[in-house]
């Protein structure tokens, strides 16, 4: 008997009723209410949202040209920065937390710095205050990359509100999905006005039609019976070619489309949003139980870097004792549909294929980030990874662990 394919993250499945245009509401209004914010701005992807944010900041500070991001992040961040004509600087990570290293960050920040991007990777909340302190000291802005953290909170507020601005992704696999979509938020009304000014408001019928078809495909196939075809097969093919970059979905092209998020897809998102709170609460409960069991085995589960924050749980992120052990465990289960994956395969300079957008950032020190990249492993927190399958993963992992004592 073949077990169903578990998706790599806990994406919210769509229901047939979500597709009926009269069912959905106004996504911008409903999302702002759900996040308890005065206003949000919709864009066609998280990457496009980041580009809008960068253009808005560049208009405010035309003399500044550098953007500091973690060395271990989504390659789309590097592509977006390059496409805005800005120079990326790569910041190494802390040894004790999946977050920007403050010493490295201070070393990179200068009068050239336009923005710093603390990143809430895999739903874990970064320490934005620390990034703010470094950025403010040189007059730079802070953009919270909350692409993977819609619903996460810090200090009683949505992430994205401690920095000057923040963005979420509505791409497949990042929680709520319009197949591709992005959301911009900002604390100050003046910054929100600057974002509106820089927003990508033009419609693109070609791209929108394509995204509508893709969203229908997602609605049809994002279920235990459909994922073998839509996710499992291409994954197995990539793995058989030993192409980890494609298997992890880290293979991006240079071109970033920018257009308005279409009406129908907004309505689908607004309809699904009504179930997101309950879905995330359930995900958190499932994660808490499983995190406790992983920790009982002596495993290191990555936690929020910001004290007292409430992250979200698309995956449970482990830092394994060695890269070899991580690779061995991943190889034994990646292709079998048990929901293992990598947040990203490499630190940005190690892909090679993104060198053309790194520029001088290729020379920035990234050794601790590289160590994280080699030892991290994400276990899906999808409801379709049931207890018996999680138990099997756990006992297989336990067998690989060095015996203590
Ligand atoms: C996915 C992702 C992005 C880009 O978002 P898209 O909606 O896919 O364009 C940016 N940053 C991080 C950390 C991401 O994971």
From TrEMBL:
Keyword check for Transferase: yes
Transferase as UniProt keyword: yes
Keywords noted in UniProt: Aminotransferase, Pyridoxal phosphate, Transferase
Pfam families reported for this sequence: DegT_DnrJ_EryC1 (PF01041)
GO molecular function, one term: transaminase activity
Assigned protein family: Belongs to the DegT/DnrJ/EryC1 family.
Protein name: DegT/DnrJ/EryC1/StrS family aminotransferase
């Amino acid at each position: 008997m073949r077990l169903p394919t578990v998706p790599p993250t806990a994406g919210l499945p769509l229901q047939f009723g979500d597709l009926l245009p009269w069912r959905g509401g106004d996504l911008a209004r409903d999302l702002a209410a759900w996040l308890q914010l005065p206003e949000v701005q919709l864009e066609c992807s998280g990457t496009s949202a980041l580009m809008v944010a960068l253009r808005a900041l560049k208009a405010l500070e035309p003399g500044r040209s550098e953007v500091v991001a973690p060395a271990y992040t989504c390659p789309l961040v590097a592509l977006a920065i390059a496409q805005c004509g800005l120079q990326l600087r790569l910041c190494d990570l802390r040894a004790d937390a999946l977050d920007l290293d403050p010493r490295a960050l201070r070393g990179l920040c200068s009068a050239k710095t336009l923005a710093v991007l603390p990143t809430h990777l895999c739903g874990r909340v970064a320490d934005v205050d620390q990034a703010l302190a470094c950025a403010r000291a040189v007059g730079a802005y802070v953009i919270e990359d909350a692409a993977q953290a819609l619903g996460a909170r810090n200090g009683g507020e949505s992430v994205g509100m401690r920095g000057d601005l923040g963005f979420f992704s509505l791409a497949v696999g990042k929680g709520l999905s319009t197949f591709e979509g992005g959301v911009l938020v900002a604390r100050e009304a003046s910054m929100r006005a600057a974002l509106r000014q820089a927003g990508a408001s033009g419609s693109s019928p070609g791209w929108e039609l394509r995204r509508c078809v893709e969203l229908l495909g997602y609605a049809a196939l994002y279920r235990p019976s459909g994922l073998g075809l839509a996710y499992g097969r291409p994954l197995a093919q990539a793995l058989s070619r030993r192409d980890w970059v494609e298997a992890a979905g880290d293979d991006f092209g240079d071109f970033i489309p920018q257009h308005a998020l279409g009406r129908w897809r907004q309505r689908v998102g607004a309809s699904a949003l009504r179930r997101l709170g309950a879905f995330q609460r359930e995900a958190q409960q499932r994660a808490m139980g499983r995190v406790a069991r992983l920790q009982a085995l002596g495993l290191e589960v990555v936690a929020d870097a910001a004290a007292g924050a409430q992250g979200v749980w698309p995956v449970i992120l482990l830092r394994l004792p060695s890269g070899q052990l991580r690779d061995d465990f991943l190889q034994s289960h990646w292709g079998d549909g048990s929901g293992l994956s990598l947040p990203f395969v490499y630190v940005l300079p190690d892909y090679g294929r993104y060198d053309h957008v790194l520029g001088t950032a290729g020379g920035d020190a990234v050794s601790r980030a590289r160590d994280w990249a080699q030892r991290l492993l994400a276990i899906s927190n999808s409801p379709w990874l049931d207890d018996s399958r999680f138990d099997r993963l756990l006992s297989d992992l336990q067998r690989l662990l060095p015996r203590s004592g």
